[in-house]
Amino acid sequence: MKAVILAHEQFPDRAKTALGVLRYGDHDVVAVLDRDRAGDRVADHVRDVQDAPVVASMADAPDADVLIIGIAPIGGGFEESWRPDVRAALESGMDVVSGLHHFLADDDEFVALAAEHGGEIDDVRRPPADLGVADGVASDVTAEVVLTVGTDCSVGKMTVTEELARAARDRGVDAAVVPTGQTGIMIEGWGTCVDRVVSDFTAGAVEDMILEVGDDHDVLFVEGQGSIAHPAYSAVTCGILHGAQPDSLVLCHAAGRDRVHGYEEYALPDPETYVDLYESLAAPVHEASVVAGALNTVNVDGDGDARGAVADYETALDAPAGDLVRFADDRERVLEAVL
User: Fold this and answer.
1) What is the per-residue pLDDT across 272-326, written as a single tens digit (0 to 9) for each?
2) Which of 15, 113, 291, 319 has CA atoms 20 to 30 A from the CA of 27?
3) Torsion on CA atoms 273, 221, 338, 324, rounded to nearest 10
4) Pick from 141, 227, 120, 124: which is nearest to 180 by CA?
5) What letter does residue 172 receive in the DSSP assignment?
6) How many CA atoms lie within 13 Å of 166's alpha carbon, on the beta-carbon side?
7) Phi and psi, residue 221, nearest 5°
8) Rounded to whole angstroms, how far apart are CA atoms 238 and 119?
9) Predicted model pTM
10) Largest Cα–Cα distance in the chain?
C-alpha cells in the first residue's frame, strides 16, 4: 500500500509516528509532508529507514492509497493547518489513518468527504467499546512476557520492542509484539491504544491483548508507554505494568536526558532509582526484574562517544545494555539477556 505521511514542521525529531512507520511498517512510503523540509529527502535526516521525498503539501505528493498522520503531539490535538492536506487526501479517494486523541471520524467535513469519494477514516486511538477491568490472569499464558519501560516519554520503547521482536524471530524464536500505542498499532495492524482507555479499564485492556495471543507464541514483547515517574503519564505506565504481568523488563532511556521532556521543571531520577521503582511496583502483582537496558544515542555524535554512553548506562543498571538501532551487536547482547 502506498502511503504519504504528514509531519509538518516536526520531521524528524518530533515525528516519532512517522519514523516508526518508515522504519518498521509495511507501507511503501512515497512522500513525507513537511513544509519546513520541502525539497529534502528522508535520507538527508535519518539513516536506515525507507527513503522518500519531503514535499510541502498533498498537491506535491505522488498518488497514494493512504495518508498517515505521522505526528503525536502532547495532548494529541489536531492542528488546523493540516486540514487542507487531509481534505485533499479524502477528495482523491485516499484513506486517512490517524493516531491523534482528536478523532477525525468525528469531523463532519472529513466524514462527508470520505463518504463522497470512497475513502475511510481510521482513528487507531479509538478504544474498543467492550473493555472491562482486569482479572489479574495475564501471567497464566504460556508465553514469556517482556515489557519495555522507560525513564521518560519518547525514549524509544516502541523501537526497542520492535527491534527485540525482530531479532528474536531471526533467531527462530516464535515472538510477537503487543502494541499499546498508535505507532505500534499502525505497524502491527492490531492492538489497543491504552492511553485513550478509561483508567479503570487500562490494565484490563492490556490483559485482554496478552490473553488473545499469549498461548500462540513463545515470547511476547509488550510496548510500554510513558514512565512511572512522569508527572502526566504515570497512570498508563502502571496500568500496562500490572495488566501485562511481565516476567522481565527492559529499561529504556535517552542518552544525556536529565529532565522530563516537555516538563523540564522536573528532573529525571537516576537509572538505579527507576529499577527500584519498576521492580517494587510490579512485585505485589507479579514479580519482574529489569534484565537489560536500551539507550537511545541518536543525539550522541560519533560511535565512540555512543559506546561510552552505553557503557556508563550498563554500569548504572548493573545489567547488559545497548543502543539496539545503532549497534547490531548490542541488539544481540540485550536479546540474549532477555531470552
Assistant:
1) 999 999 999 999 999 999 999 999 999 999 999 999 999 999 999 999 999 999 9
2) 113
3) -80
4) 124
5) T
6) 15
7) -105, 110
8) 37
9) 0.94
10) 59
Residue with cell 477525525: 104
Locate 3 and state its grid cell: 502511503
**8 Cβ contact list (under 8 Å, min separation 6):** 33, 34, 35, 36, 71, 79, 81, 82, 85
Which cell is 218 given?
513463545
Angle at 278 between CA 274 and CA 280, to 5 degrees: 115
For each of the domains in the chain, give its residue range(s) and CATH number, in order of start. Answer: 2-123 (3.40.50.720), 138-338 (3.40.50.300)
Radius of gyration of the chain (CA): 20
Closest CA to 37 of 48, 47, 52, 16: 52
The answer to whether 21 touches 5, Cβ cutoff 8 Å, is: yes
Backbone angles phi, psi at 265, to 5 degrees: -75, -10
The half-sphere exposure of 179 on its side-chain side, counting CA atoms within 13 A, is: 21
Q: How far apart are CA 10 and CA 328, in angstroms?
A: 28
